[in-house]
Amino acid sequence: MKQKVYAVAGNILSPLGFTAEENFRAVVEGRSGVAPQEGTFGIPEPFCASLFDRGQVAEYAAAEGITGYNLFETLLILSIRDAVRRAGIDAASSRVAFVISSIKGNVEELGEDESEVPVTVSAGHVAAFFGQNAAPLVVSNACISGLSALIHARRMLLSGQYDYVVVAGAEVQSRFIVSGFQSLKALSPEPCRPFDAERCGLNLGEAAATMVLARAEACPPDCWELVDGATRNDANHISGPSRTGEGSYKALRYVLACCDPEELAFVNVHGTSTLYNDEMESIALHRAGLSDVPLNALKGFFGHTMGAAGILESLISMQAADAGIVPGTLGFGKMGVSYPVNVCAANRTTDKHAFIKLLSGFGGCNAALLFRKGGAR
Hints:
The chain has 377 residues and is of the alpha/beta class. The chain has 2 domains: 4-216, Peroxisomal Thiolase, Chain A, domain 1; 227-373, Peroxisomal Thiolase, Chain A, domain 1 (3-Layer(aba) Sandwich), CATH 3.40.47.10. Helix content is 30%, strand content 22%. The chain has a 10-stranded mixed sheet, with helices on both faces. A 3-stranded mixed sheet has the order 2-3-7. The protein is globular. The two termini are 17 Å apart.
Protein backbone atom coordinates (compact mmCIF):
# COMPACT_ATOMS: atom_id res chain seq x y z
CA MET A 1 0.00 0.00 0.00
CA LYS A 2 1.19 3.48 -0.82
CA GLN A 3 2.59 5.39 2.16
CA LYS A 4 0.65 8.42 3.40
CA VAL A 5 1.81 11.45 5.36
CA TYR A 6 -0.45 13.02 7.94
CA ALA A 7 -0.46 15.62 10.70
CA VAL A 8 -0.52 14.18 14.21
CA ALA A 9 -0.32 17.41 16.25
CA GLY A 10 0.10 21.15 15.96
CA ASN A 11 0.31 24.39 17.87
CA ILE A 12 0.07 28.13 17.23
CA LEU A 13 1.39 31.13 19.14
CA SER A 14 0.18 34.53 18.03
CA PRO A 15 -1.00 37.77 19.65
CA LEU A 16 -4.45 36.14 19.66
CA GLY A 17 -3.40 33.26 21.89
CA PHE A 18 -0.72 30.73 22.80
CA THR A 19 -2.55 27.58 21.69
CA ALA A 20 -4.09 26.46 18.42
CA GLU A 21 -7.49 26.31 20.11
CA GLU A 22 -7.29 29.91 21.35
CA ASN A 23 -6.32 31.14 17.90
CA PHE A 24 -9.09 29.21 16.17
CA ARG A 25 -11.65 30.50 18.66
CA ALA A 26 -10.57 34.07 17.88
CA VAL A 27 -11.08 33.45 14.16
CA VAL A 28 -14.55 31.99 14.68
CA GLU A 29 -15.49 34.95 16.88
CA GLY A 30 -14.11 37.46 14.36
CA ARG A 31 -11.40 38.86 16.65
CA SER A 32 -8.26 40.28 15.06
CA GLY A 33 -4.76 40.75 16.42
CA VAL A 34 -4.13 43.58 13.95
CA ALA A 35 -3.91 46.99 15.63
CA PRO A 36 -2.63 50.49 14.79
CA GLN A 37 1.07 51.04 15.53
CA GLU A 38 2.53 54.49 16.22
CA GLY A 39 6.24 54.91 16.87
CA THR A 40 6.72 51.13 17.01
CA PHE A 41 10.32 50.09 16.25
CA GLY A 42 11.11 53.82 16.07
CA ILE A 43 9.30 54.15 12.74
CA PRO A 44 7.71 57.60 12.34
CA GLU A 45 4.98 56.55 9.88
CA PRO A 46 1.97 54.80 11.47
CA PHE A 47 1.08 51.30 10.29
CA CYS A 48 -1.13 48.39 11.32
CA ALA A 49 0.26 45.03 12.42
CA SER A 50 -0.37 42.06 14.70
CA LEU A 51 2.52 42.12 17.19
CA PHE A 52 3.33 40.22 20.36
CA ASP A 53 3.52 41.95 23.71
CA ARG A 54 7.25 41.30 24.28
CA GLY A 55 6.86 41.47 28.04
CA GLN A 56 4.03 38.95 28.03
CA VAL A 57 6.03 36.49 25.95
CA ALA A 58 9.07 36.86 28.22
CA GLU A 59 6.95 36.34 31.33
CA TYR A 60 5.26 33.26 29.87
CA ALA A 61 8.58 31.76 28.70
CA ALA A 62 10.21 32.38 32.10
CA ALA A 63 7.31 30.66 33.84
CA GLU A 64 7.88 27.69 31.55
CA GLY A 65 11.60 27.65 32.35
CA ILE A 66 12.70 28.83 28.89
CA THR A 67 15.38 31.51 29.27
CA GLY A 68 18.57 32.55 27.51
CA TYR A 69 17.08 32.56 24.02
CA ASN A 70 16.21 35.46 21.73
CA LEU A 71 12.56 36.17 20.90
CA PHE A 72 12.63 34.25 17.61
CA GLU A 73 14.08 31.14 19.25
CA THR A 74 11.77 31.43 22.26
CA LEU A 75 8.65 31.49 20.08
CA LEU A 76 9.81 28.45 18.14
CA ILE A 77 10.64 26.50 21.31
CA LEU A 78 7.28 27.27 22.91
CA SER A 79 5.38 26.30 19.78
CA ILE A 80 7.35 23.10 19.13
CA ARG A 81 7.28 21.96 22.74
CA ASP A 82 3.50 21.96 22.92
CA ALA A 83 3.12 20.21 19.54
CA VAL A 84 5.69 17.52 20.43
CA ARG A 85 3.92 16.86 23.74
CA ARG A 86 0.62 16.45 21.94
CA ALA A 87 2.19 14.10 19.41
CA GLY A 88 3.74 12.02 22.20
CA ILE A 89 7.02 11.53 20.36
CA ASP A 90 10.67 11.48 21.42
CA ALA A 91 11.91 14.65 19.74
CA ALA A 92 15.55 13.64 20.36
CA SER A 93 15.26 10.46 18.29
CA SER A 94 17.38 10.06 15.16
CA ARG A 95 14.16 9.01 13.41
CA VAL A 96 12.77 12.50 13.99
CA ALA A 97 13.81 15.44 11.78
CA PHE A 98 13.34 19.16 12.35
CA VAL A 99 12.43 21.62 9.56
CA ILE A 100 12.41 25.33 10.43
CA SER A 101 10.70 27.92 8.23
CA SER A 102 11.44 31.66 8.38
CA ILE A 103 12.10 34.52 6.01
CA LYS A 104 13.95 36.94 8.27
CA GLY A 105 14.71 34.93 11.41
CA ASN A 106 16.44 37.06 14.03
CA VAL A 107 17.03 40.03 11.76
CA GLU A 108 15.45 42.36 14.34
CA GLU A 109 18.79 42.42 16.17
CA LEU A 110 20.82 43.21 13.07
CA GLY A 111 23.01 46.23 13.61
CA GLU A 112 22.09 46.77 17.25
CA ASP A 113 25.07 44.88 18.67
CA GLU A 114 27.03 41.72 18.01
CA SER A 115 24.19 39.44 19.10
CA GLU A 116 22.62 39.05 15.65
CA VAL A 117 22.35 35.32 14.96
CA PRO A 118 21.82 33.79 11.49
CA VAL A 119 18.60 31.81 11.17
CA THR A 120 20.58 28.59 10.67
CA VAL A 121 22.30 29.09 14.03
CA SER A 122 19.02 29.92 15.75
CA ALA A 123 17.45 26.81 14.24
CA GLY A 124 20.34 24.79 15.64
CA HIS A 125 19.75 26.26 19.11
CA VAL A 126 16.09 25.29 18.90
CA ALA A 127 16.79 21.74 17.75
CA ALA A 128 19.42 21.31 20.47
CA PHE A 129 16.86 22.35 23.10
CA PHE A 130 14.91 19.22 22.15
CA GLY A 131 18.00 17.00 22.23
CA GLN A 132 18.49 16.82 18.47
CA ASN A 133 22.06 16.12 17.35
CA ALA A 134 21.38 16.53 13.63
CA ALA A 135 21.28 20.00 12.09
CA PRO A 136 17.72 21.03 11.20
CA LEU A 137 16.75 21.85 7.65
CA VAL A 138 16.05 25.59 7.26
CA VAL A 139 13.58 26.69 4.57
CA SER A 140 13.59 30.34 3.54
CA ASN A 141 11.67 30.72 0.30
CA ALA A 142 9.94 34.10 0.57
CA CYS A 143 6.27 33.99 1.59
CA ILE A 144 5.76 30.36 0.56
CA SER A 145 8.37 29.20 3.11
CA GLY A 146 5.84 27.53 5.43
CA LEU A 147 4.18 25.52 2.65
CA SER A 148 7.56 24.74 1.10
CA ALA A 149 8.66 23.36 4.47
CA LEU A 150 5.57 21.15 4.74
CA ILE A 151 5.95 19.89 1.17
CA HIS A 152 9.62 19.06 1.72
CA ALA A 153 8.89 17.41 5.07
CA ARG A 154 6.33 15.20 3.34
CA ARG A 155 8.98 14.07 0.85
CA MET A 156 11.44 13.41 3.68
CA LEU A 157 8.95 11.06 5.31
CA LEU A 158 8.12 9.28 2.05
CA SER A 159 11.84 8.62 1.58
CA GLY A 160 11.66 6.31 4.59
CA GLN A 161 14.53 7.98 6.45
CA TYR A 162 12.31 9.35 9.21
CA ASP A 163 9.22 8.39 11.17
CA TYR A 164 8.30 11.95 12.16
CA VAL A 165 9.18 15.45 10.99
CA VAL A 166 8.61 18.49 13.20
CA VAL A 167 7.86 21.47 10.94
CA ALA A 168 7.91 24.86 12.65
CA GLY A 169 7.78 28.41 11.31
CA ALA A 170 8.18 31.74 13.04
CA GLU A 171 8.54 35.40 12.24
CA VAL A 172 9.41 38.41 14.37
CA GLN A 173 8.81 41.84 12.87
CA SER A 174 11.30 44.71 13.09
CA ARG A 175 12.19 48.17 11.85
CA PHE A 176 14.10 46.54 8.98
CA ILE A 177 11.12 44.50 7.75
CA VAL A 178 8.46 47.17 8.23
CA SER A 179 10.60 49.82 6.54
CA GLY A 180 11.21 47.48 3.63
CA PHE A 181 7.51 46.94 3.00
CA GLN A 182 6.85 50.66 3.46
CA SER A 183 9.42 51.41 0.78
CA LEU A 184 7.40 49.19 -1.59
CA LYS A 185 4.21 51.12 -0.68
CA ALA A 186 2.74 47.75 0.27
CA LEU A 187 1.52 48.42 3.83
CA SER A 188 -2.02 49.49 4.63
CA PRO A 189 -2.49 52.25 7.22
CA GLU A 190 -5.67 50.45 8.32
CA PRO A 191 -6.69 46.80 8.87
CA CYS A 192 -6.30 44.94 5.59
CA ARG A 193 -9.25 44.05 3.36
CA PRO A 194 -8.46 40.95 1.24
CA PHE A 195 -10.15 40.89 -2.18
CA ASP A 196 -12.13 44.02 -1.33
CA ALA A 197 -12.58 46.85 -3.82
CA GLU A 198 -11.13 49.33 -1.30
CA ARG A 199 -8.08 47.27 -0.28
CA CYS A 200 -4.89 49.29 -0.07
CA GLY A 201 -2.18 46.95 1.21
CA LEU A 202 -1.15 44.36 3.73
CA ASN A 203 -0.60 44.20 7.49
CA LEU A 204 2.42 42.40 8.91
CA GLY A 205 2.13 39.89 11.73
CA GLU A 206 4.14 37.87 14.24
CA ALA A 207 3.53 34.21 15.05
CA ALA A 208 5.04 30.79 15.54
CA ALA A 209 3.34 27.61 14.39
CA THR A 210 4.28 23.93 14.43
CA MET A 211 2.94 20.82 12.71
CA VAL A 212 4.22 17.32 13.54
CA LEU A 213 4.01 14.99 10.54
CA ALA A 214 4.14 11.18 10.43
CA ARG A 215 3.88 8.47 7.80
CA ALA A 216 1.88 5.28 7.68
CA GLU A 217 0.20 2.98 5.18
CA ALA A 218 -3.19 4.34 6.23
CA CYS A 219 -4.02 7.79 7.52
CA PRO A 220 -5.97 7.55 10.80
CA PRO A 221 -9.56 8.78 10.34
CA ASP A 222 -9.11 11.50 12.97
CA CYS A 223 -6.00 12.97 11.27
CA TRP A 224 -5.44 15.17 8.25
CA GLU A 225 -3.48 13.75 5.33
CA LEU A 226 -1.08 15.93 3.36
CA VAL A 227 -2.13 14.42 0.04
CA ASP A 228 0.28 16.24 -2.27
CA GLY A 229 1.83 19.63 -2.80
CA ALA A 230 3.70 21.62 -5.40
CA THR A 231 5.86 24.73 -5.71
CA ARG A 232 5.98 26.53 -9.04
CA ASN A 233 8.02 29.60 -9.95
CA ASP A 234 6.84 31.73 -12.87
CA ALA A 235 9.88 34.06 -12.61
CA ASN A 236 7.64 37.05 -13.26
CA HIS A 237 9.24 39.77 -11.13
CA ILE A 238 11.33 40.26 -8.01
CA SER A 239 8.29 41.51 -6.06
CA GLY A 240 5.28 41.59 -8.41
CA PRO A 241 3.05 38.55 -9.11
CA SER A 242 2.31 37.26 -12.59
CA ARG A 243 -0.61 39.10 -14.17
CA THR A 244 -1.95 35.75 -15.41
CA GLY A 245 -1.37 33.91 -12.13
CA GLU A 246 0.86 31.47 -14.01
CA GLY A 247 2.79 29.91 -11.13
CA SER A 248 -0.20 29.79 -8.81
CA TYR A 249 -2.34 28.21 -11.52
CA LYS A 250 0.28 25.53 -12.23
CA ALA A 251 0.59 24.67 -8.53
CA LEU A 252 -3.20 24.40 -8.28
CA ARG A 253 -3.43 22.28 -11.41
CA TYR A 254 -0.90 19.85 -9.95
CA VAL A 255 -2.75 19.24 -6.68
CA LEU A 256 -6.16 19.12 -8.39
CA ALA A 257 -5.01 15.92 -10.09
CA CYS A 258 -5.60 14.34 -6.66
CA CYS A 259 -9.13 15.61 -6.09
CA ASP A 260 -12.29 16.94 -7.65
CA PRO A 261 -13.26 20.56 -6.88
CA GLU A 262 -16.54 19.21 -5.52
CA GLU A 263 -14.57 17.62 -2.66
CA LEU A 264 -13.24 20.93 -1.40
CA ALA A 265 -14.68 22.70 1.61
CA PHE A 266 -12.69 25.77 0.62
CA VAL A 267 -9.43 27.15 -0.71
CA ASN A 268 -7.49 29.08 1.92
CA VAL A 269 -5.70 31.66 -0.21
CA HIS A 270 -2.70 33.91 0.37
CA GLY A 271 -5.00 36.95 0.40
CA THR A 272 -2.48 39.62 1.35
CA SER A 273 -4.84 42.46 0.40
CA THR A 274 -2.40 44.04 -2.01
CA LEU A 275 -3.80 45.17 -5.35
CA TYR A 276 -1.89 42.73 -7.54
CA ASN A 277 -1.72 39.64 -5.30
CA ASP A 278 -5.47 39.32 -4.83
CA GLU A 279 -6.08 39.99 -8.52
CA MET A 280 -3.52 37.34 -9.51
CA GLU A 281 -5.09 34.77 -7.20
CA SER A 282 -8.56 35.38 -8.62
CA ILE A 283 -7.20 34.76 -12.12
CA ALA A 284 -5.36 31.59 -11.06
CA LEU A 285 -8.46 30.22 -9.29
CA HIS A 286 -10.60 30.97 -12.34
CA ARG A 287 -8.13 29.27 -14.68
CA ALA A 288 -8.06 26.23 -12.39
CA GLY A 289 -11.85 25.92 -12.43
CA LEU A 290 -12.23 26.92 -8.77
CA SER A 291 -14.28 30.12 -9.10
CA ASP A 292 -17.29 28.55 -7.39
CA VAL A 293 -15.39 26.90 -4.53
CA PRO A 294 -15.61 28.93 -1.29
CA LEU A 295 -12.38 30.79 -0.51
CA ASN A 296 -11.15 32.64 2.52
CA ALA A 297 -8.10 34.56 3.69
CA LEU A 298 -6.82 34.81 7.27
CA LYS A 299 -4.53 37.84 7.01
CA GLY A 300 -7.19 40.07 8.55
CA PHE A 301 -6.84 38.10 11.80
CA PHE A 302 -3.11 37.47 12.00
CA GLY A 303 -1.53 39.87 9.53
CA HIS A 304 1.05 38.47 7.14
CA THR A 305 3.10 36.14 9.35
CA MET A 306 5.52 35.40 6.50
CA GLY A 307 7.53 32.24 7.33
CA ALA A 308 4.86 31.04 9.76
CA ALA A 309 1.89 31.68 7.45
CA GLY A 310 1.79 28.38 5.57
CA ILE A 311 1.81 26.33 8.77
CA LEU A 312 -0.43 28.60 10.85
CA GLU A 313 -3.08 29.02 8.18
CA SER A 314 -3.10 25.28 7.41
CA LEU A 315 -3.65 24.47 11.10
CA ILE A 316 -6.52 26.97 11.36
CA SER A 317 -8.03 25.51 8.18
CA MET A 318 -7.88 21.97 9.61
CA GLN A 319 -9.69 23.06 12.76
CA ALA A 320 -12.26 24.94 10.73
CA ALA A 321 -13.08 22.00 8.49
CA ASP A 322 -13.24 19.73 11.55
CA ALA A 323 -15.81 22.09 13.02
CA GLY A 324 -17.77 22.25 9.75
CA ILE A 325 -16.89 25.91 9.24
CA VAL A 326 -15.57 27.97 6.35
CA PRO A 327 -14.06 30.98 8.17
CA GLY A 328 -15.04 34.41 6.98
CA THR A 329 -12.55 36.79 5.38
CA LEU A 330 -12.20 39.65 7.85
CA GLY A 331 -12.29 43.03 6.08
CA PHE A 332 -13.96 41.82 2.88
CA GLY A 333 -17.08 43.69 1.81
CA LYS A 334 -17.30 44.37 -1.92
CA MET A 335 -15.67 42.30 -4.66
CA GLY A 336 -12.56 44.03 -5.93
CA VAL A 337 -11.00 41.53 -8.35
CA SER A 338 -11.67 40.84 -12.03
CA TYR A 339 -13.03 37.33 -11.60
CA PRO A 340 -16.00 36.90 -9.22
CA VAL A 341 -14.47 34.28 -6.97
CA ASN A 342 -16.54 32.90 -4.09
CA VAL A 343 -15.12 34.92 -1.18
CA CYS A 344 -16.60 34.06 2.22
CA ALA A 345 -17.33 37.36 3.93
CA ALA A 346 -18.69 35.64 7.06
CA ASN A 347 -18.47 32.15 8.55
CA ARG A 348 -20.30 29.50 6.54
CA THR A 349 -21.04 25.85 7.23
CA THR A 350 -19.57 22.93 5.29
CA ASP A 351 -19.78 19.14 5.38
CA LYS A 352 -16.76 18.57 3.17
CA HIS A 353 -13.44 17.15 4.31
CA ALA A 354 -10.70 18.54 2.05
CA PHE A 355 -9.16 21.93 1.37
CA ILE A 356 -6.28 23.52 -0.54
CA LYS A 357 -3.81 25.93 1.04
CA LEU A 358 -2.38 28.44 -1.45
CA LEU A 359 0.55 30.87 -1.04
CA SER A 360 2.64 33.16 -3.25
CA GLY A 361 5.81 35.14 -2.70
CA PHE A 362 8.49 37.45 -4.00
CA GLY A 363 10.56 36.21 -6.91
CA GLY A 364 7.58 34.56 -8.60
CA CYS A 365 7.30 31.63 -6.18
CA ASN A 366 3.95 29.91 -5.60
CA ALA A 367 2.84 26.86 -3.63
CA ALA A 368 -0.28 24.75 -3.15
CA LEU A 369 -0.93 21.86 -0.77
CA LEU A 370 -3.97 19.58 -0.68
CA PHE A 371 -5.22 18.36 2.70
CA ARG A 372 -7.83 15.62 3.18
CA LYS A 373 -9.31 14.20 6.35
CA GLY A 374 -8.22 10.60 6.93
CA GLY A 375 -10.53 8.15 5.20
CA ALA A 376 -12.56 10.88 3.43
CA ARG A 377 -12.94 10.73 -0.30
